[in-house]
Structures are given as structure tokens and as C-alpha cells.
Histidinol-phosphate aminotransferase
Amino acid sequence: MTKNSTDQQTQAAQQLFSLLKKSVRTLNPYHVEPAMPRIKLDANENNWLAGRFQPILQERLESLPIHQYPDSDCLALREKLAALHGVDREQVITGVGSDQIISWVIQAFVEAGDQVLVMDPTFSMYEIDTLMAGGEPVRVPLGEGFVFQPEPFLEKARETMPKVVFLTNPNNPTGGVIAPEVLRPLLASLAQLRCVIAIDEAYYEFYGETVADLIDTYPQLIILRTLSKAYGLAGVRAGYALASEAMMDALGRVKPPYHMSGLDQLAALICLEHADALQPVLQKVIGWRETMEKEMKALALQEGEDRLRVFPSRANFLLIRTPLAAKLDQRLRESGIMVRGYGESGALANCLRITVGTETENKELLAVLQEVFQPPAGRSTEKPAEKEGKG
Ligand SMILES: Cc1ncc(COP(=O)(O)O)c(C=O)c1O
């Protein structure tokens, strides 16, 4: 390639960038680690269910008519979900992950300049979708220990009159919850305002509390769920939502045809047909979350909360904060274990989010944690910078 043509290409690429919508040009895109680690504890998947549905899927694939477009209405899947939740089929919508349904909520309701209220920190896609639509995310910080504060949230809602409110329960990445006695009155107050209320219950199965029963009371309420977490189907991309028929009519206006492939629908259906396999696995995950939390808290007790803090979680992951976060992350990577880190600044500075894995995976993780905080005799672990100074 000549220098001239390279220059022309660079110029054309710059021009292309300048053609981007301003809201997209300035966007910080969602980052996914490309590596496939030996032990993957960075995305809140359910490793206990690895390989569980493949044999059945393989058998049923034989009769899947892949030369035809899939069912655009996902009827069989929606009927299965409706039966599972005791609601009408018309009150269920499915998506390519709940991610897609989040984007439909924004596409359907948020115009340039509209406000969208979110907790801070929380799942970043609400903000990314809002910015893409030209809307303005309004973050309401969680309180000390990432505990949700209903009063400031409601106050901010009254002040900004958002088009959409997202509440994540349990929250990602903190694992904290909004108890029903707090959430239900808050919903009643929010329902007085003119806004859509999206309750993201992606981790519901690990928590057990829901407000899905309120979809008949509040037409503006939508409950987001996913098969990616407890159901062990993150690779399939299957999410769903429960809401009023009025809400479904709104989302139906932006939903593309044939959004879920026949493969997605079949795998999701098989997974739900074998949902009885789920309960014992959920108990294992919850049991291990409690064990890991206890072990980490015992370590924190010895080390001091400024060296290791474990935030209470009702999901399938634990958020910890430690000045040794970067070192711990590095040691985990060296051991082939990937967790989610959040860098050194912002509300999640020095935090790591650790998915609860299988027994072997959890034990390996805990061993690295022990080693970093309590190195075996003869091997030293760096002290955090601020402690070193105090000598
Ligand atoms: C709170 C929350 N909502 C939604 C999602 C998206 O899930 P999916 O698109 O896999 O259904 C996630 C994924 O991490 C999440 O943590």
C-alpha cells in the first residue's frame, strides 16, 4: 500500500468517526474481556450447570427447521414462562438476553434530553442505552456500604421527573437488595409520577423476593428476568420480562421481527422444561456464597476492614474492596482465575466482583485469597501504599 493511499484511508476513517451520532461518539462502550480463562468467575454465570442441557439440545436439534425463519412471537417459550409465573401469555415478552429488553424500554420511551434514573453503582447497560438514545442518565448514589436509600432516590425522581426508572434487585455489582417493605411503598410513590418503572430481577432466583405480582396493579411496571444467571444459559442469550399488556404493546413497537433465533428459543425451552434441576444447584450456589462470605469475613476480621471489606450479597457473586485489589486480581489471573475488577477510581475503586463458582473453583479462589493476605512464611505480600508510609 502506498503512503498516499494510507493517508487517504486514515482521513476516511476520521471522517467516518465524525459522522457518528454525537451520543455514540462520546460513549464509553461496554467492555468484555476477550480471554477464556481456566476458571471464569467474572460474569455471574452458573458454572454448576455447565454441559447440563447439551445432550437434550443435541437430540431436539434434529427436528429444528433451520431453513425457516423462527417463530417471531416465541409462542412456545412465552407460554412456558407464563405458566411458570401464573400470568397471561400476553404479559410475557422474550428477548436476546434481558439486555435486549432493556434497550427496547429505552428505545420505546426515551427521547433526546429525557432523564433516566438509576442507582449508582449499578449495571452499566441502562446508562449506555440511555446515552445512545440521547437521553440523560441520572445517578443516585447508594449509601454507606452500598445500601439503597429510598428517600434520596424518590426525592431525585420527584426533582427530575424521569421518563424511566431502573431499580436492580439484587443489584449488580454490589449484590445488595431493596427489601420488600422498602420497595413496595417506593413503587407506590414512583407510580404517582409519570414514568416507566423497570425492576431488574436478573438475580431473583438467588434471592427469592419479587414484585412481579404488581404488574396487574401498575401498567407502567416492567419486571426484567434472564436465563443467563441461575438457569445457566448465558451463552444462549435468552431473557424475558413480565408486564401489563399496555407495556407489551409499547415494546412490540420497537421489537424487531425474528429477534430470538430458533436455537435460542429451543435451548431456552429445554432449560425451562428441566427447571427442576435448578433447585439443588441454587442451594449449592447460595451455600457456597455463604461459605465464601464467611471465609472472607474471617480474613477481614484478622486483616481489618480497611484491608478487606466484603459487601453482603443475595446474588450469585460477592463484591469485595481491598487496597490489594490489583495484586489479588493479578495473582488470580496467574492462577487462571478471572474475576471482575473496577480499577482504582470511582465508587467501585479497588473493588473486585467474584462469581460463586463450583466447589473446586471456589476452593481455588479462596486459596489464592489466603495466600495474598496471609502469605506462607518466607514469602511476603506487599502492604498497601498508605500503610507503608505509616511504617
Ligand atoms: C442486573 C443485570 N441485568 C441484566 C443483565 C443482562 O443479562 P442478559 O442480557 O444476559 O440476560 C445482567 C448481566 O450481567 C445484569 O447483571
Observations:
- Residues 384-391 have pLDDT under 50 and may be disordered.
- The longest strand covers residues 115-120.
